[in-house]
Design a protein that fits this description.
The complex is a heterodimer of chains A (about 375) and B (about 260).
Chain A lengths: L13 H23 L1 H4 L10 H13 L2 H11 L9 H22 L8 H4 L6 H24 L8 H28 L17 H28 L5 H29 L2 H4 L4 H21 L7 H31 L7 H24 L12
Chain B lengths: L2 E6 L8 H10 L10 E2 L11 E9 L2 E9 L8 H5 L5 E3 L5 E3 L9 H5 L6 E2 L8 E2 L5 H5 L5 H5 L5 E5 H14 L18 E4 L18 H9 L2 H28 L7
Parallel strand pairs in B: 1-10, 2-3
Antiparallel strand pairs in B: 1-9, 3-4, 5-6, 7-8
The chains are: A mainly alpha (about 375), B alpha/beta (about 260).
Chain lengths: ~375, ~260
């Protein structure tokens, strides 16, 4: 894209105005929270120390943003070139996702000005230590990776430098998420006897890793549909179908491992007992795994509509799964003492809105979609 | 050697002087809306120890039993293994100590603790985690914690953990009123505070389904793979990068397709 004499652009639409308003309200709550503390804006308490922000903003955010490392692996490490047309948009949304996760984490810690402490006080025996280091390093790596795209338009003299270091970054950028997607699940290993046996498993790190990988292609399907609608650009159907197939294979392995795990720990009775936990699990697995699997391997999965349905269901299933781990799975132990406050919900929605707005701005001003084609300036 | 406290619940009369001593020594505030003694007292950022009143059945008769609760100071503390900034540390003398200046306030310790001991200062702008420190400065000088030293009915015995375990065994074996279970001998891999009782522990609000395996081992079993996975996966990725790139280049040069 030749950028000379091109102005910065940002279309204003009614939807975007609404998103700006929500993001602004969220920002106001954030300021209030930073001054008056976590108790002032959240319904968290001594029984429920972790809630919506950890469950959605962090655990779901990291997994949904996992589309970046899966795509980077397929496009840049395995050099499967037919997928390269979606590489940039997948990695952009992943970078923004991780930045939102860091903001979410930052808001959730009590001593926010002390956030840097684990960089110098090494609690290396903690799974959270691995999460902290990997997420912060990976976000840094993604921002530097984005430098390659940014320098096509601003600070052009740096472009060749960014291009040169890209291979190293890409390898690190696939390595780090593999480690911390599993360690996010590993956090819950200490919840032995607390987290409901449907979700507590010695394999929970593997489940988190696999689901973060298969939700990647799903998110790419959803995001390309959304940006196709917003930017009048349609991703190649063959590309999406190929990606969805890769995701579905991991999904199938995930299902098999679940069956093995449930059988070895004798968990099946809980699932069909009809209680809150069993029903929420059935919802999670049916909506988020079984139906998407059926779609991918049926004629419906060959259509654009089918792939978007597959992607949306998989993503929703993942969100239900993470919230089940953080909230549903703990109700039996802690009791039903937590419902997110409206302020928590607004901040979460506001973060997502802010992310979408920044995504739109970058897509409109940098060469993200139609990367392979020579687009008229 | 590691110090501990043996609590004999049959001797407690529920006077609550231990909770007062705790507040005075540790400069915790009294809050009449959150009493440390009574039917359902809650541990919180001001109540580091509580005494709950429990009406239970003994030989068909209703009886009262009084249960002192505080941090159990695990042999292998889950909070310390969960903390990513070393804000919790186990001392050789027994106490598990919290260092506020290292704390980030992530509250993972609260989730990790099998006894739900760490509490958070929810109403503060810059809240910290709080919990019983076993009066570590007193213990370091060989003195008993504040709560132990004021008890009028000798409910608590302060000493070497293994000697206390032997004493507990001798007591429950020689007196058939006691249930044959020393709470804290094996729970979560063993705790420095141990309890004996004449009423089954689950009837007194104790969590009896705690794993006997030290909780840090669960994390270690996972984390021990990290270096190997990081190195081998990193090497594999680098190899794949170079190999597939070269293969594509050759394929382009020879102008023919290579099947994927």
């Amino acid at each position: 894209m030749s950028a000379h004499a091109q102005k910065w652009s940002f279309r204003i639409t009614p939807v975007r105005v609404l998103m700006i308003l929500i993001a602004a309200l969220a920002a106001a709550i954030v300021v209030y929270r930073l001054i008056f503390g976590l108790g002032a804006v959240s319904n968290l308490n001594d029984q429920w120390p972790w809630g919506l922000w950890i469950g959605f903003d962090v655990l779901c955010g990291v997994a949904l943003a996992g589309g970046g490392y899966g795509t980077a692996l397929i496009v840049h490490i395995l050099h499967i070139e037919k997928f390269s047309s979606i590489g940039r948009s997948a990695m952009l949304s992943s970078m923004l996702g991780y930045i939102l996760v860091l903001i979410g984490l930052f808001l959730d810690i009590g001593q926010w000005f002390n956030f840097w402490r684990p960089f110098v006080s090494w609690g290396y025996h903690s799974v959270l230590f691995e999460v902290f280091w990997c997420v912060s390093l990976y976000t840094t790596v993604q921002v530097i990776e984005f430098g390659e795209i940014a320098t096509e338009r601003v600070g052009k003299k740096w472009h060749s430098f960014f291009k040169k270091i890209l291979p190293v970054l890409l390898v690190i950028g696939v390595l780090l998420p593999t480690l911390h997607q599993s360690s996010l699940g590993g956090l819950y290993l200490t919840e032995v006897g607390k987290l409901h046996p449907i979700w507590w498993s010695p394999y929970i790190p593997v489940f988190f890793l696999m689901s973060s990988f298969f939700v990647g292609p799903a998110m790419v399907c959803v995001e390309t549909a959304l940006s196709g609608w917003a930017f009048k650009h349609k991703a190649d159907l063959k590309v999406l179908r190929g990606l969805a197939k890769i995701g579905a294979v991991i999904m199938l392995l995930y299902t098999i491992l679940k069956i093995v795990d449930f059988t070895s720990r004798d968990v099946w009775p809980y699932i069909f007992a009809g209680g809150l936990e069993g029903n929420m699990f059935l919802l999670e697995i049916t909506l988020g795994v079984l139906i998407p699997l059926i779609i991918v391997f049926s004629p419906f999965g060959k259509t654009r509509k089918g792939l978007v349905t597959y992607g949306a269901l998989t993503a929703i299933g993942l969100v239900i799964n993470r919230l089940n781990v953080v909230i549903t799975g703990m109700v039996n132990y802690y009791g039903p003492g937590y419902v997110p406050a409206w302020t928590e919900i607004v901040v979460t929605v506001g973060l997502v809105c802010g992310g979408i707005l920044v995504y739109c701005f970058i897509v409109e001003n940098f060469n993200i979609v139609q990367h392979d084609e020579e687009s008229p300036a | 050697m590691s110090k501990g406290v043996l609590v004999d619940l049959t001797k407690c009369v529920g006077c609550g002087s231990c909770t007062v001593a705790c507040k005075l020594w540790n400069k915790r505030e009294f809050d009449k809306d959150s009493p440390a003694v009574g039917l359902n007292p809650q541990l919180d950022d001001q109540n580091w120890t509580t005494v709950s009143f429990n009406e239970v059945q003994k030989d068909g008769q209703p009886v009262w039993r009084f249960v002192k609760q505080q941090c159990l100071h695990c042999e292998h503390p889950a909070c310390a293994s969960a903390c990513f900034a070393k804000a919790f540390q186990k001392t050789p003398e027994g106490p598990v100590i919290y260092y506020p200046h290292l704390c980030v306030g992530c509250r993972y310790c609260m989730l990790a603790c099998p006894f739900d001991i760490p509490k958070f200062e929810w109403d503060k702008s810059f809240p910290l985690v709080t919990k019983c420190q076993m009066c570590s400065t007193k213990v370091a000088e060989g003195q008993a914690p504040a709560c132990v030293s004021v008890c009028p009915t000798d409910v608590m015995t302060f000493g070497e953990r293994d000697e206390l375990l032997a004493l507990a065994k001798k007591t429950i074996d020689s007196d058939n009123r006691y249930v044959k279970h020393i709470y804290g001998e094996n729970e979560a891999g063993g705790t420095n505070w141990i309890y004996i009782s004449d009423i089954p522990f689950e009837e007194l609000g104790f969590r009896t389904d705690v794993t006997t395996r030290p909780i840090p081992e669960y994390s270690h079993d996972f984390l021990k793979y990290t270096p190997a996975v990081a190195i081998s996966w990193g090497a594999l990725l680098t190899g794949l990068y170079a190999y597939t790139k070269r293969r594509n280049k050759i394929a382009k040069e020879e102008n023919k397709d290579v099947p994927m």
